[in-house]
Amino acid sequence: MRLHTLHDWNISPADAVALQRRLAPQLVYDRPIDLDAVRRVAGVDVSVKNNVSQAAVVIMTFPDLQIIESRVAVQPTPFPYIPGLLSFREGPVLVDVFAQLEHEPDVFIFDGMGRAHPRRIGIASQMGLWLQKPTIGCGKTKLSGIYIEPPPERGASAPLIDRGELVGAILRTKEKTKPVFISVGHRADLATSVELVMRCTTRYRLPEPIRAAHNAAGDF
C-alpha cells in the first residue's frame, strides 16, 4: 500500500511536539464517511514487550466482518513512552506494516486517539496523514477532555469536551460495560465514526477489527 511520507521519525520529544502543532491544521475532521461505500475496514494496534514493538493490521470485510488479511511487523521500540507522543513510539513500525498490505482498506480504526488529544493529533490523526484514508481513534482510556458518563445501554453516547471544544464521543458498545473513547483521526466526522464503530462491534466491548489487531499484535 502506498504511503505519503511526511517526516522523519528520529526526532527529539520537543521537536515531536512542534511537528504535531505544524501537522494538526492539515487534518480533516468534518467529512462524513460514506458507510454504504465501505467494503473493507482495518484494525490497527501495536504491542510493546522488552523494548520491542510489534504492529498488526487486520483487514475485515464490511459489514460481515470476515478477516481477509492480517499482517505484522516488528522493530526495536525507537522512542520513550511520553503521553501525547505515542505516534513517534509506534509510527515507524506501523509504516512497515502498512507497506505490506495487499488489500487497501476503506477505513482504518486505531487503538488510540484522533482529535481527543492535547494538540488534536493523536496516532489515528497523524497516521491518517500518512495513509490519506479515513481513520478513527478508538481508545480504551481517556487521554484528554471531560465528559458525563453515558447511559448503560448499548449504543448510548456522550460528548467528550476538551477546553470547550467537542473532540470525541464516549460510546457504550456493550450494555453495562465500560465505554470506549471515539474521535476522528482524519477524513471522517464524529457521527459516522461512531456509527461505523458500532457496526463493527458484536459481542465484545471493542470493535472486531481492533480485537483482531490486538490479538495479532500481542502474539510474540
Description:
By secondary structure, the chain is an alpha+beta fold. Helices cover 25% and strands 27% of the residues. The chain has an eight-stranded mixed beta sheet with strand order 3-2-1-4-5-8-7-6, sandwiched between helices. Helix 2 (86-100) packs parallel to helix 3 (123-131). The model has no long low-confidence stretch (mean pLDDT 97).
For the record, what is the CATH homologous superfamily label? archaeoglobus fulgidus dsm 4304 superfamily
Residue share in helices? 25-40%
Radius of gyration: 16 Å
Strand coverage percent? 25-35%
Question: How would the global form be characterised?
Answer: globular
Q: Based on DSSP secondary structure assignment, what is the total number of beta strands?
A: 8
Query: Remind me, CATH topology?
Result: archaeoglobus fulgidus dsm 4304 fold
pLDDT averaged over residues? 97
Largest sheet: 8 strands, mixed
What's the helix-strand series? HEEEHEHEEEEHH
CATH architecture grouping:
2-Layer Sandwich
Strands of the widest sheet, in order across it, are: 3-2-1-4-5-8-7-6
In short:
This protein has 220 residues and is α+β, with helices and mostly antiparallel strands. Helix content is 25%, strand content 27%.
Which key terms come to mind for this protein?
archaeoglobus fulgidus dsm 4304 fold, 220 residues, 27% strand, 8-stranded mixed sheet, 25% helix, alpha+beta
Question: What are the SSEs and their pairings?
Answer:
Elements: H1 13-23, E1 40-49, E2 52-61, E3 67-76, H2 86-100, E4 107-110, H3 123-131, E5 135-139, E6 157-162, E7 165-171, E8 180-186, H4 190-199, H5 208-217
Parallel strand pairs: 1-4, 4-5
Antiparallel strand pairs: 1-2, 2-3, 5-8, 6-7, 7-8
Helix pairs in contact: 2-3
